[in-house]
Amino acid sequence: xxxxxxxxxxxxxxxxxxxxxxxxxxxxxxxxxxxxxxxxxxxxxxxxxxxxxxxxxxxxxxxxxxxxxxxxxxxxxxxxxxxxxxxxxxxxxxxxxxxxxxxxxxxxxxxxxxxxxxxx
Length: 120
Fold this sequence. Notes:
β5 and β6 form a beta hairpin. It contains two helices and eight strands, in the order αββββαββββ. It is of the alpha+beta class. The chain has one domain.
């Protein structure tokens, strides 16, 4: 009788793990245009947020659930596939250029900050 209870608990844990995996791991990365520049993609599951104390000109997006490591790499590839060339990187700050435009992007798994500027 004791082994049936343990088997039932093990099965419940496996099923719970499977459902959590299915909910929080999205192997595909859906994108949408950003409000900063429609040519610059952001994850489809991101929402714009206001940060009143931030420097002027920056636009902030929160991503839920956050991008995983693999998805983060896919996201950088998708930006480049859409014609944005990464020309510099300093920590989390990535600098992309396309058609005379320069996009400063601070990229985290759970947040993206964007600032569009003219190419020098």
